[in-house]
Amino acid sequence: MDDGSPTMSIDESLPARPFLQSWQDKVFGQTPKAILVISGHWDTSFPTVNIVECNDIIYDFYGFDDALYEYYQFPPEMHQLKYPAPAAPDLAKKVKKLLVEAGFERVDEDRKRGLDHGAWMPLMLMYPEAKIPVCQLSVQSKEDATHHYKMGKALAPQGPRYEDVNQFQEKAPYAKMAHPCSDHFYPLHVAMGAAGEKAKAKLIHHSWDLGTFSYASYQFHNS
Question: Where do the TM regions start and end (predicted)?
């Protein structure tokens, strides 16, 4: 998932906020038993899951290369936000098992890492009660889109296709301009792979912030 601007956690003027706040009522009415988040803010050399007993949250409002944030100071109240969601160690272990069975020779475990803002910030709007267990799976920006698609495919009961999306850097005319670094795009490939080969994509929200941040959200379904 690409969280867009970190200020979405407090900025009520952003169109994506009411969309995420309406998630349970209008987008996905079922309550998940646990949630796996793939965030562009956790980038590792090998696929890694966080297997912890308690989810601390990480205030990782830094590392933006865009000149837009060069002199931007994030409001101090953002560091006071809390999202005490339970950890999901069983789900994290299952994710690792599925990846290994699918041929990923190395899948690491992180026994300390909590949730980065690419995970807890959207979830605090989607599920503000913070009662659903959450774990994360990292991306590998040094790998390509097909690598991430295969990660998602390993988590699905069946494997999908969508080769155009896997080859987005060659197929899309301005792919490099839109995504100079692919870490925030690869969560889409994992979700697409996990959806299954017969899944269809539906655009359920699209808005912009600061002229460059797209909040496009896709739902994959088999109906």
Answer: none
User: What CATH number does the domain containing 146 carry?
Assistant: 3.40.830.10
Q: Which domain holds residue 57?
A: 6-222
Mean pLDDT, 10 residues at a time, the chain of 223 residues: 70 90 90 94 96 93 54 76 96 95 95 95 95 97 93 76 62 69 77 78 81 78 71
Residue for token digits 């699209």?
206
Q: Within 13 A of 47's CA, how many CA atoms are on the CB side?
A: 29
Quote the tokens at residue 200. Answer: 């269809």
**Global pTM value:** 0.69
Residue 190 falls inside a structural domain: yes
Q: What is the DSSP letter of 26?
A: I
Per the structure, how many domains does the chain have?
Answer: 1
